[in-house]
Structure prediction request, 803 residues.
Amino acid sequence: MIIELGHFALILAFVLALTQASLPLIGAARGNAALMAVARPAAFGQLIFLLLAFAALMYAFVTSDFSVQVVAANSHTAKPMLYKIAGLWGNHEGSLLLWVLILALFGAAVAGVGDNLPATLRARVLSVQAMIATGFLSFMLATSNPFTRLIPAPLDGNGLNPLLQDPGLAFHPPFLYLGYVGFSMAFSFAVAALIEGRVDPAWARWVRPWTLAAWCFLTIGIAMGSWWAYYELGWGGWWFWDPVENASFMPWLIATALLHSAVVTEKRGALSGWTLFLALAAFTFSMLGAFLVRSGVLTSVHAFAVDPTRGALLLAILGVASGAGFALFAWRAPALQPGGLFAPASRESLIVLNNIILTAATATVLLGTLYPLIREAMDGDAVSVGPPYFNLTFTPLMAVAFLILPFGPLTAWKRGDLTAAGQRLMLAAAAAIIFGLATFALVSPRKALAAAGVALGFWLVFGALAEVAERTRAFRAPGAEVWRRLVGLPRGAWGMTLAHLGLGVFTLGAVFETAWKIEAAEALSLGGRIEVGAYSLTLDSVRTGEGPNYIAERGVITVRRGGREVCTARPERRFYPTGKQTTSEVALCNRGLDQIYIVLGERRAGEGGRPAWLVRGYFNPWVQLIFLGPLLMAVGGLVSVTDRRLRIAAGTKAT
Amino acid sequence: MRRGLVVIAAALCMAAASDPSERLPDPAQEAAAREIFQEVRCLVCQNESINDSDAELARDLRRVVREQVAAGRDPSQVKAFLTDRYGEYVLLKPAFSLGNAVLWLGPFLAVLAGLAFLALRVRRRDLSEGLTVDEEARLARLLEDRDA
Prediction:
C-alpha cells in the first residue's frame, strides 16, 4: 500500500509541476498576479509529494520489500542498513527519483527565500524550473517508474554491487546530484531573464549563491568519487579520465567559469550575455552527463543503468530543454544592454581569459569523451581516447590558466596595472621558484617537469596568500591595523582565497603523487617482506573471517621505517557470494601528507609449497593534498555563500 | 533482467601489471614495458589500460608487449605491432595523424577562437567607446555611487 501511495504522490507531483510550469508563466506575461501566485504553493507541494514518494521508496528499501522491482534488483536482506538506504540511489530509477527530488528542493528554496525577486522574474524562474521537472517526471513515470511491482516477489534480492558498498560511495551520488541539479537553478534564472529581456547586476547577484552552492556540492561529490576510486578500486589511481568522470567534470568546469563571469556581471554589469550562455551551458552539461552515463553510448568503468530507449528519451529531454534555452538566447541576447567597458589590462579581461581557457578545457574534455563516437559515425573506425590524450591537452591548458590566476585578484577592475600586480607577486613568484628548484634538487629521481608542476602549485598557494597580504597591508602597516583589516575582510574574499588556495594544494598533491609514487609487489609467505621506498612491509598473518554479507581474508601487515614500527595495516580481500565478486579492502597508513597504500591480493603457492599472498604496496607522497584541495575549494565556496552581500540578495529585501 | 547494474566487470583489476610472476628480469626493460602498458587498452574491459586490468586478455597483451620489449623493439614498434593486430582501438592515445587532426588540434583551436572573439569584441568596443561619450559619463557616475 505504501508503495502505491508513493506512486500516487509521484503522479501528483507531476500534475503540480505541470501546473507550475504553465500558469505562472501565463500570469507573468499578462501581468496577472493571481496566476503568478500559483508558483509558490505549487513548488512547495511538488517538494512535499516528492518527499513522500522518496520516503515510500526508502521504506521499501529499508524493509527489503522485494515485491518492488528496483528493490529486488538492487537490494538484499544480508546487506548492512547503510547500503540498503544507499541502494535507493544506486540504480537508475531510484537515482532519478533523487534527481527530481533535488530539482523540487531547489525550486521550493527559491519559492521560500526569493521574496526580494521581482514578482514576474520569480514566477518565470519557478515556471522554468517546473518545466524541467515535468520533463524528468514524465520520463520517470513513462519508462523508469521506481514503484513498479514484481509479482511474484522473489525470496531475496540481487544485491548491490559490492564495490558500491562503501561509505564514500553511499553519499557520493547525493552530493553529485545536488551539484548537477543545482545548476538547473542557473538555467531557470537564465531562461527567465531572457524572457524578461533584462540582465543586470541584480540578476547576477540573485543567481550567484545558487550556482555557488551547487558548485560546492559538485566539488565535494567529485572529490568523494575520486577518493572512492582511490581506495576501493585498489590500484591507487584517483582519476582515470573515464567518460563517467568526464561527465561530472564538464559541468564543474563550466560552472567554475560561470562563477567567475557572474562576478563580472554583478560588479561591473559586463559580460551579461556570456554569463547567460554559461548558465545555460552548465545545466546542459549536467543533462548531457546524465545521458552519457545512463544511455550506454560510451563504455565506461562506471557504466550503470544502461538502456538505449531510456537514453533516447533522455536525449530528447536534453535536446528540448537546452535547444529551447539556447534558441531563446540566440533570439533575445543580442538585444541585451551592453555592459560596462573595460581596458585590455583589467580584472575583467583576466576573468575573460580564465573563461576562455576553462571553456576550451571543457571543449577538450567533451571532444576526448565523444571522439570515439564521432570517428565511428564518420568512418566506422573504432578508436580509444584515454588518459594520455587528456594529459597532453587538458593539463597544459590548465597550467596556463594557473600561471595567470594569481594576477586576477591583484588587478583592479576596469583599468588595471599588470606591472603593479606583477610587483606585488614578486615575493610569491620567488618563493614558488625556490620551492620548485628545491624539489628538483632534493627529490629523487630528478624530474624537471614535475618540479615545474610543484612550483606552479606553490605559485597558486603563495599567490592566494599574497592577495590576502595585499588587502590587509601585511608587512607594511602596524600589526593592529593588519588585524583589523583581516577581520574586516568580506567572506566573499575569504571564499575566493580559500578556493584558490585549494586549487594550489590540489596541484601540489596531484603533481607530487603522480611523479614520485613508488610501487612494489611480491608474493609473500607469512613473515615475508617487501620494500616500498623507505618503508618495509612484513606480512605477519592472514586469517579468514566473515562479514555481514561476505567472507574475508584479513591480513596483518607491519609497516616499518628504518627498523622502527610505524603502523599496522589490515588489508582485506573479500568475497561476496551474492554476486560472486571479489573485492579488496585497501589498508592505508598515513604518514603526514603521504600515505602507504597496501593491498592484499590473491593466494598462490609460494616457496616450498607454503601458501603465499600477493601483496602490493604503494608509497603515495603528498596524496592527502589531492583530496584536501577540493575540500578547501568547497569550504571556500560555502564561506562565500554566507557572505552578507549575497545573503541580502538571496534572503531579505534588497535595498 | 540484469540491466540494473552493468557489473563493473573489470572490478578485480588491481594494478595487475605489477604481478611479480609476469615481470621481466631486466628492470630497465620492465620499466619500458610498463610505460607502454599505460597506453594500451584492455580490449575486453570497460575502459582500462592493460596496466590496470586483471582480465585474461590484458595478461596476454602484457606478455606480448614484454616479449617485444625483451626482443629489443622500441615503443613505437611495439605499438605498431599491436595496431596491426587489433586496430587503432587498442591504443589509449590516438595517433597524431591527419584523420585525428580534429582531436589533437581541437583544444588549441578552441583557445584561439576564444582569443579571436575577445580581440574582435575589444576592437568593436573601441569604436563604440568613441561614439558614446555621455554613456561613459553615466558609467563613471554609477561607479562613483557604488564606490561611495
Q: What stands out?
A: Residues 518-620 of chain A form a domain with the Tick-borne Encephalitis virus Glycoprotein; domain 1 fold (CATH 2.60.98). Confidence is low (pLDDT under 50) at residues 649-655 of chain A. Chain A is about 65% helix and 10% strand. The beta strands of chain A are 518-524, 529-532, 535-546, 551-561, 564-569, 572-576, 581-585, 587-591, 594-605, 611-620.
